[in-house]
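To make this tangible, we now present a fold written out as tokens:
***
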Amino acid sequence: MADEQPTANGKPPDPMDAFREVRDTYLDAWAKAMVQTVNTDAYAKTSGTVLDTYLSASSPFREAVEKAMLHVLEQLSMPSRADFVALADRVTNIEMRLDDMDAKLDRIVKLLTKPAPAESIRKPGTAGPRSPNRKKTRGAK
């Protein structure tokens, strides 16, 4: 240990530094090559073809698995995806109706709490406007 010479940064030399540099150079080269490859039209067309083929081939299997799962859920008396979707639709419908009712109630409250016109407001201790059908009576207290 005494014969190891410190490097310029004050640390002893590490034999793995050379391997790390090679690894980093290798990974950088691969990253650049992959970016160039992936950004081509040929790659996009090939990927699309592979995906279409996979989806076409897996469709019958997916349908069979869905039917089997539906059958198992029915046997276990558990809800299926379709049941949850139907329930979500019903809850959404109820929510929308409640929102509509809330808006109507707000309009009703606004109409009921609307300030009265200035001429019909009475001051305390004064008589209000007379009704045209009301007759004056003399001597009545």
Summary: The chain has two domains: 15-78, 79-114. The mean pLDDT is 84. Residues 64 and 70 are 10 Å apart (CA to CA). The chain is about 65% helix and 0% strand.
